Amino acid sequence: MLNIENLHAGIDGKEILKGINLQVNAGEVHAIMGPNGSGKSTMSNVLVGHPAYQVYQGTVTFKDKNLLEMPAEYRSHEGLFMSFQYPVEIPDVSMTNFMRTAINEKRKYLGLQPMAPTDFLKLIKEKRDLVKLDAKFMNRSVNEGFSGGEKKRNEIFQMAMLEPSLSILDETDSGLDIDALRIVADGVNRLKNPETSVIVITHYQRLLDYIKPDVVHVLYKGRIIKTAGPELALELEERGYDWVIKEFEDSQK
Known about the structure:
The chain is α/β, with parallel strands linked by helices. It contains nine helices and twelve strands.
């Protein structure tokens, strides 16, 4: 699905990622944890093609295609999706029109006809119910006036509508109360299948209580310094990051 080899990248000439190697197979859930400033959000922004970030070295293939050669919109059409830590508001663009445009642009890229209006409305209801998003939000501007929890639900609703192959959840749990967290996580879990994959970027074990990872990585100073099973997240919750960092630094001596 996704293969990252020796990825060096950064912003404004400052290198932040210093040799990332990561492989995500179909059907897998990978959790990426690490202290603030480790490069977690930089990695997700580079993958989706944020124009402010530069790649200095390395390769990224997505479904056997060179991801780094694609403009951001093509990456989305190919099946890459990111749920933002801080979803932006888009005034004067209703949710319904936003999603209709997004879906039909993807269908156009794939050589398909626009979705029929009746099918589109049926799909909206089905996916909206998945994350318990009230119907009144469909006629409001994107994220405008939404609470923090509603914005995060809206992100998962968009993910459900677009049916991506690989979803990157960039600290989706940030600012969520326990009820909103359960709803968001339940929506993610119900969208999982053997053909799709998820990268969960988080600081906290609590999200991983709901979205069970197959693999957990620790990112530190732009490098993945430890990879293990889901038990690693539990150990990090109990012991913090210091022991992992010390273990890594000792190995570099």
